Amino acid sequence: MGKRKRQRPKLSAYIEPCRRNEAAASPKVKDRPASSQRIVPFEPGHRILLVGEGDFSFAHSLWSHHCCTSLLATCYDSATALAEKYAQASQYISDLEEASHKDDGTDIRILYGVDATQLGRAGAGGGKHVKKGNFDRVIFNFPHVGGLTKDVNRQLELLVGFFRSSMPILAPGGNIVVTIFEGEPYELWNIRDLARHAGLKVGRSFRFQPGVYPGYSHARTLGNIKGGGGWKGGERDARTYVFELQDMDPASPIRKRRRESSSSENTD
User: How far is CA 72 from the centre of its chain?
Assistant: First the structure.
């Protein structure tokens, strides 16, 4: 009997925006990817949990340009703290809340004060809204403990805690998606090894393409810069990792090839 071919997580080819919300003005994105292959790690019909949202511009883009209608968008900040840090967030949140009240099957919720390491637990874990086995995708863009800290151990604890709390809430065949900047100090995090020790493996990775998400802009954990300038960190190259649960069957060919070179997992 021949070996089974390794199945990679399904990645959508980018499609033109559904334009359900053309009336809502979105900032013009200048940095669209030059490549004709535009990749998003989800499907419009997926049940998606967004963790660590900043100003909710990413959630807004998933709804307004990618037709995602089942979104639970969460942030670590309280509603008050968020409003103080990101003045632009109010419009994104207003649009999402309005969409959730329409009688068209849209199910969009926003939760504040959600800890990425406590998902599914009462209180800071989202409680009843974050159910076991419920999400096709759990997405965490640019995880960071906040502030100006360079403490690598704190960053590692955040990622490990996130991985472990995310695994039980994945639906069968679901994926955990994490995007981080390339280069130092992010390479020191060894995100592939962290995931492996948590019981995950990289199904595929690819360059993050911000232009695929019209209206999205990277939000600093410290909030907006007064005067609107100065920080250029959001323009750095970044990479998206699509993680899946490890196959626990030792006879599985996927298990046997777990140590294959990372180059076979990359899509540039």
Answer: 12
**DSSP state, 210?**
G
Identify the DSSP state of 6. Answer: P
Compute the distance between CA of residue 7 and CA of residue 204 in angstroms, rounded to an integer: 10
Whole-structure pTM value: 0.81
SS3 232: coil
How do residues 50-97 score in pLDDT, each as one tens digit? Answer: 999 999 999 999 999 999 999 999 999 999 999 999 999 999 999 999
> Following DSSP, what letter does each residue of 81-112 receive, concatenated?
HHHHH-TTHHHHHHHHHHHHTSSSS-EEEEES
Q: List 13's β-bridge partners, or say none.
A: 39
Provide the 8-state DSSP code for 41: S
| Residues whose CB is less than 8 angstroms from the CB of residue 209 and which lie 6 or more positions away in sequence, other chains included | 32, 33, 35, 38, 39
